[in-house]
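Notes, p. 3: input format for complexes.
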Amino acid sequence: MNIFLKIKNALKNSNKSYIELKHHRKKSDDIYSLAILQSLLVGYPYLPLNGGALRPVCIAYILNEIIINQRQHILEFGSGISTIIMARLLKKNGLNARIVTVEHNEAWANNLKTYLKNEDLLQFVEVVRVDLKEITTSMGAVHWYDYKALSMAIKEMTFDLIIIDGPPANTSKLKHSRLPALERFAPNFKADFCLVLDDVHRKGEQDLVAFYKGKNKNVSYEIISETLGVFRTTNKFNPIPIHY
Ligand SMILES: C[S@@+](CC[C@H](N)C(=O)[O-])C[C@H]1O[C@@H](n2cnc3c(N)ncnc32)[C@H](O)[C@@H]1O
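Output follows (244 residues plus S-adenosylmethionine):
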């Protein structure tokens, strides 16, 4: 084998090992975080945690943020297991906070409301169900939550924790679907806020991060466990649930 081929193979193998290492690190972050979440899972109705939900490490990060940095006004785009676990936390810890969660899928929203009602959690959550509609953005037209209906529901409300995990943006056609939350909703963010954007390992979300960083030079940015992008306007206690 000539030297160039040997080098090429060595690089290929080291890249493969690096990807595997990252994968295992993510898995161990999730296993560790699942242990932290036990007090909000054991003794409650079973939750179908699957690939559609935020990773355990992301959920644990958000719960820690709510407690450590006393977030009270939570806005979530893309409802699900995350909504239920956050609501359980508010109830269990007697926190004075509320969640507005935005969902496009009617059946999913109804399921969620049933779950919340059965656990007496609707007092903490407002589920805003709106259709997806075409909306113009600086990156072209995308399908996002019906802006008019959503603006009517949210009105002048402002939020100190914003979670962007919807609408679906998992194909190249949909890759910028989550941009309007960043482009249009700044007036609904409090001066001191934390904004988490899931799936920042994907090209589409990386475009959104670059866009938002470019427009907001004073907002800090970090990535948690490869997939969760976190923007902050002020230095706060660090809610990261893992240590290396
Ligand atoms: C990425 S998911 C949002 C997940 C949610 N934030 C959570 O952590 O459970 C985006 C959309 O997919 C649908 N969805 C939510 N949870 C799902 C799940 N576990 N499996 C499949 N689809 C889901 C909903 O319509 C939601 O608005």
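The chain has one domain: 3-232.
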